[in-house]
# Entry
Amino acid sequence: MDQNTSGLSSDQILQVLTLSKDATAIHVGADARIVFANEAMLAIWGKGRQVIGLPLKEALPELITQPFLDMFARVWKEGITLSGQNTAADLVVEGVLQRYYFDFEYRAVSDADGRVQCILHTATDVTERVRQQELVDRLNRNLSLSNEELSVANEQLSAANEELAAMNEELAATNEELQTSYAELSLSDRRFGEMVLQAPFAICLIRAGDLVVEAVNTDYLKLVGKRREQLEGQVIWEGVAEAAEVYAPVLQQVIDTGEAFIAVEHRLNLIRNNEPETVYVDFTYKPVFAANGAVRSVLVVGIDVTEKVLARKRIEDVEQRARLAIEAADIGTFDYHYASKELISSDRFNDIFGFAASPTRVEILEKFHPEDRHLSGDAHQAGAKTGKMYYEARLILDGAIRWIRIQGNIYFNAQREPQRVLGTVLDITEQKRLEQQKDDFVSIASHELRTPITSLNVSLELLNRVKNREDRSMADHLIGQALGSGRRIRALIEDLLDVSRIREGQVMLQKKWFNLFALVQACIERERQWNHHDITIQGEKHLEVFADEQRMEQVITNLITNAVKYGKGPEGIQVSIGRTPNGTIFSVTDQGPGIALDKLEHVFERYYRIMPHQTSGSGMGLGLYIAKDIVTRHGGEIGVESEPGSGSTFWFILPAASSAAGGAQAD
# Structure
């Protein structure tokens, strides 16, 4: 409704109407849907606040056969005012249809353009006044009759025949009144029976003395899944025996105490149409009293709410699964209200931002990286147009950078003003790190492949120029360089292929017995040819292992090559092999700069490089990843021990073979 000219808001006006002792309601639409009713009006209707929002015919179905619904429709369509005084209306109050009298007015309330906005409904219960007036009229009539009779008696004192005639007339009048009362009673009984049969919900009337069903409608028979002859005129618990154990004591308590029993969404196990079914029902046991105050019968009113309950349970299941999915995905959730600036957040949300309880938005923004603080406001501003919010930003927590991703849906009022945002927050720090590793890998792979390819091309071009010279020394040197570049390219490609095989689970092991010392010595000699480093080996020369020789050569070569790359100390590289209680151990120690503690846990990850900014000879971050997979497939362990400035020791342990089995074995 429009603002009151006095300055009161719509809500304030409604609050005033709520406090008013005059029965007042507001309806909208031709079906007179109830949008407001104060306590006085609800008391007249005999209803609770659950009728708010319902069309009048659903809230008060007894009005369907009365003229009031048509009057509401006319007021809405024509924008007029209809009123009445001492108007009779039949209403169901406390489960009983009774006649009341009202002074009422249905007034159309229109806007400035003459369009009807609502109907203001006021009513005053004048039942007592009408009945008092009827009593006064009846007393006046009786008094007048008495006066007439007295006059007649005075006039006819002398004539006994006339007195007898008067008495006969009075008896005749009394008989007429009795006949009229009997007719009215019969009509009332018929109307009650029709009401029971035609009610849009289940109704059953049970006699208190013997629990015999006096009346039952079709909806009740449908609710309990029984035929009319199984219930009408029968003891209720003979017809619905499956419910007797639980509800027979309840029914008897209503009869004994005279207090109603109300059940909401009670689960009933019924035999409906000879089949067991579980239903959910809202029902009431309402006592009906006789003139002496004793409970004469019990009115049972029920509604089948099975579909509503099952639908709610399905929604609850979906919500539970959604909560479990959010928790499993480690996602935080939040609910932010723009007007109050209230933020309701989940525990995971608080953990991500480093708070023990729900923070304010100001406190959250203080956690953002200074360069990213504007992103939140920008996202809210964009969301006010699109209804969606999305952005990624950096946080500074305990001096470390963390990445988060925030997504949300913005909800608006009727004026398209943002009211609240429901969203999620996800810590994507690890994802960002992996993305950075992949980006670095692409750059590294390009560089690592470009260098040997360029060297190969240069060697081949020079070789082409000197191919006809008699002096072969230059040609032999260029051929050696070309072969070295080719081997480098092949090794890089093999690493990439191995990573693909690992991801697809296609790495196969061909195990056999071989001399580990001899294999290590061969790997060292090959490395010396290329780098001329001081590499020493110690250990048992006749140490045999049962493993895939080619794959173990790949692991040993990678560990020695890494030691050569980073081990620049004067004491050279030390390689050691030997036996342990668990199997065979291999280690290679360098005297290089060592590895920082925060990097040790990542050295065996795919694409990870210890020195990411090194551009020459640093590899693609695949060697140690492949080495770990090979050792693990052998059932062994691989690790590293290092301190900054003190060098590093990489090692692996192969488990002892259970028997000297020969031949090939596929893993």
